[in-house]
Design a protein that fits this description.
The strands form two sheets. Strands 4-3-6-7 form a four-stranded antiparallel sheet, with no helix packed on it. By secondary structure, it is α+β, with helices and mostly antiparallel strands. Helices cover about 25% and strands about 45% of the residues.
Length: about 170
Amino acid sequence: MLRVGAKELFVAFLFYALALAGCGATTDPALEARKERARKVREYVRLALPAEERERPLGRLLVDLRDVATTGTVMMLRTRIRSTYDEPVEGVRLVLTFLGARNGTMIPLETKYFEQDIPVPPWGSALLRLDVESLYLGAQVFYDIRAYPKKVGARPVDPPPGWPDHLR
C-alpha cells in the first residue's frame, strides 16, 4: 500500500493548483476566432465603403435589400439590417426617400419615416419587413433607404436630421 504524507499531499495539491492557474491564462480558441472574424468583417466593410467615407467611424447600420414587390401603390420591402457596431442595437429608424429624374438630376419626391423595434446584435443582422404606401409607386421612381439606430448599447441615439417631431 502506498503511503502519502501531508507534505507530499500539499506539494501535489500546490502543483495541481499551479497547473490549473496556468491553464486559465490560455485564451479560448473559439473566442479568438470570433474576434479575428470581426476584425476581418470590419476591414471588409471599410473597404466596401466609398473612398470619402472610409475614414469615418464604422458605427452604422447597413441595409441589404432582399426582395421588393409592388402592387399598385403599395411596396413590400424585405431587407436585412446589418450592424457594424460593437454593441447591440435596440430599435431601428428608417428613412425611405422616393426619387424622380428631372433634367438629368435626381430630385426627392417623397420621404417616409419608420421606426421598428427590432434588436440587432453586435456585428450581426436582423430581417425586416416593411409595407410602404405611396402614390409615386405607379410611376418610374427610384428609392433610397437609410437605417439609423434608436439605441446603441444602453445609450439612446439622436434621430437623423429631418426626423419628424411627432416620431421623436
